[in-house]
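Project standup — Tuesday

K.O.: blocked on the structure for the chain from last sprint. Re-posting the sequence here as requested.
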Amino acid sequence: MIPGGQSNYYWLTSLLAARGLQARTARVVAFVNGGVGLLPMLLILSPAGPHGPVREAIAVAIAVYSLTVASVWLRHSWPSQRFSIITVTLWAIPMSAACLVMSDPMLGMLATISFIFATGYVAFLHHPIFLVPIWGAGAITLGYLAVRIGMHDPALAFSAAAVIALVNVYVFYTCRTAIDLSSTDIHYSEIEQLTGLLNTDGLYARAANLLAARNRQDDRHMVLAVVSIDSFPLLASMSGPRHANRARIDVSQALRETVRRNAIAAHISDSDFIVADTFTTPDASPLIDRIQGAMKSTPSRVTASIGVVCTPLAPLTVHPPEVVIDALLAAAAQAMERAREDGGNDVRYDVRDNLPIDE
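H.V.: unblocked you, prediction finished:
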């Protein structure tokens, strides 16, 4: 679950990656950082902008800082959560400075609208506590400029400051509401950061729920498949980490689009994915055929060795869920290894009437 007070960083960034939007989003963040940071230096050319050696030096420093942060966002890898938190909170300093160095306080008041970018960013990706230093700096800046403007036009000063404050509150509320409405019952700690699928902890938790919640009729069968990308170490060494990550993202998206809504899809290691579901028959070939077809249509065009274990569900319910999942994973992994040893890009099925389980 992603509660309103939790950080959404890895949940949202993994979803962006799974949908191929991470690079585009990183470019937008870089553009906003660089663009907003360059504006104070550009306004040196305006009579209302920063003038004098100190103010102009501050404008140049803001531009350098903003371009440095933007360059990090343009790297092929998504920045860490720590870097994101540090940069967005520190950004309050150059934002405030950019507003205060303007010769015309009304222009400085207008510039405080840039705090909205930080408000929306934190509201979407981080815990709301990180808005405290940002809104604190914004309030001080807004108050100082309102006093300067209010010396000549109190009504204008109050109205301008109120509008900017209300817009920030509205943006924060809207972003947090959108996150709450789109969140799932999956805790962010159960999500694998790159692909947005379940990680190992999430697999065990969801599989246990699957075993406990499904109708345990005698004609129900538990199906678990291990999908392992063929020659993944070779792909990573020859094409580099970016292409290897792209392949994993492509496979995760293929699985997400192929399995049923209530099925389990997890990414538990560099090249291994898990699919688990219940069937009314022991024949899981329609699902596996769809998975193979979806993988062939991905941009990466990777193949996979797939091992599938299928066993009646009813006998499994008398054992602890973790023990059952371990047994299913072991059997499916053995089947996958047989497919890989036979050349890969193939499937091996292990249909058992009674899965041996050691407690």
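K.O.: great, moving the ticket to review. The domain at 188-351 is CATH 3.30.70.270 (Alpha-Beta Plaits). Confidence is low (pLDDT under 50) at residues 1-5.
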